[in-house]
Amino acid sequence: MSKRIDVKDLNVYYGDFLAVEDVSINIEAKSVTAFIGPSGCGKSTFLRTLNRMHEVIPGARVEGEVLLDGDNLYGPGVDPVTVRSQIGMVFQRPNPFPTMSIRDNVLAGVKLNNKKISKGEADVLVERSLKGANLWNEVKDRLAKPGSGLSGGQQQRLCIARAIAVEPQVILMDEPCSALDPISTLAIEDLINELKDQYTVVIVTHNMQQAARVSDKTAFFNIAGTGKPGKLIEYGDTHTIFSNPVQKATEDYVSGRFG
Amino acid sequence: MTSTLTPVRSKRSALTKGQLPKYAPYAVLAGALILGAAVLALIGFNPFGWGLVSAILFAVGLVSWSAAVEGSRKAKDKLATCLVVGSFLVALLPLVSVIWTVLVNGIPGLLDPGFLTTSMNGVTGAFDNKAVESGGPVMGGIYHALLGTVQITLLATVISVPVGLLTAIYLVEYGHDGRLAKAITFFVDVMTGIPSIVAGLFAAAFFFAVVGPGTKTGAVAAVALSVLMIPVVVRSSEEMLKIVPNELREAAYALGVRKWRTILKVVIPTAISGIASGVTLAIARVIGETAPILVTAGFATSINSNVFGGWMASLPTFIYTQILNPTSPSNPGPSSQRAWGAALVLIILVMVLNLVARLIARIFAPKKGR
Lengths: 259, 370
Hints:
By secondary structure, chain A is of the alpha/beta class.
């Protein structure tokens, strides 16, 4: 239940502005890939193009191909809704639906799409998803309570549970720990390690230790200057990127000499 | 051991030196009231002048005492406090006065037998003359007008809410600040400023042209009221939809939910409390309109429960006709009593609607519990 992503010569534009230039990258199935780089270098923008979430931003468009197990996400007639149901996303700030209970938040992907689901099946799905997000023990006695009553870290794990409840092939995470304390961050990182047994995980992070801890492969993005497009500088095994990078810019960044 | 502790001073603390005593404002107030009464007694006493003179004396007295004892910074603070409180009282004065007048004049009308359950059908000047001469109860009631107000307002709401809400959804979710969205926003703003009589004339002319000359029914009045209501509903719903965080929409999209289902199941439920209270306030705004109803529904003295046929009474037009054309021209007392009673009912209706708006906002608000 996981697919690989191959990106070929992808350019991302905001209107006429070229935000990310010429990215080609192969993301393995059942692995964790981390995107690192300074702020504004286009990591998050690029991540959003992997499930067409950039289309929510007015004026954003792409050129190039993103292949999910060989199927082009940007092929003619492809519905972005289908893409997003296969490639889930977790955001920087935890965003459970405030009008729904914890249980309904987990079932949101199913219920909002008006799929019929029996109560028994729903119970199984809720328990499986919450266990998958390491949240079951903390919330099993208050599933009917609103999700907004949880702590920030619990809310973020609820959002992960909500994402895996629709059984995607790939999970994209856009700085999932940047609003969380170290303990909650650790819980999410442990979870990412478990998730890669079943899913392809792509994570954007500003925390290089986090990238080194959780990812199998790391991609370093950089930007030449303000107004210039972001580029993929180097992509390789996390170990190589952090200990023996090929590019000088990568070495400077991971060793903290700049950025 | 006790010697190490600083003994608690029974005299005033050094830290509170140079402050006015706590009773200062009350003392100044008492002085100002007495002095004000004395001044007014010289030129002829009236309560309004007494309040005004006392207020000025109070402000001057407190500020100058404070300036003498506490220094200029505290004195300026006292002056600002006096101005703020004074403005608040001035703003409150008309409200209290209106409620007081309506209560005093309206309660006798409200207590008339059958005031809420009978209409003016068959109530002639002779009844009023008899009521005045023999001191009997005032006959007639506002049932027909109450029924008309409720029906006309309900129909106006049924027309305005879908139109207004859908317009707001278009503006926020689909308009992207494009030309059409900008044009709609502009015209909604213009519509907000339309005088109510113009809305009434529009509805009347529209139905004259479509249905036939002389068409005056509750439905025409409802159309006129919705012309006034729609911009209010659009504006309030738009603001409410705008403050729904974009993250919630993105969260839904990322789950593979279609845009219209996201709007229906995530955006609107999140904003429903604000939308509902906005709608209720829009109803409260149009329920007291007189002019548009007068030219579209006319006025009736008997019960008409068919909103699509025949002239219809409403509370504002009832008040208007009772005051302007008393049932008994020689004894206008009973008519004015009925008018005040109707005014009281109207105010109670608006107040209940405001309370309902708050209740709705609280019931639908996203739960915060743990």
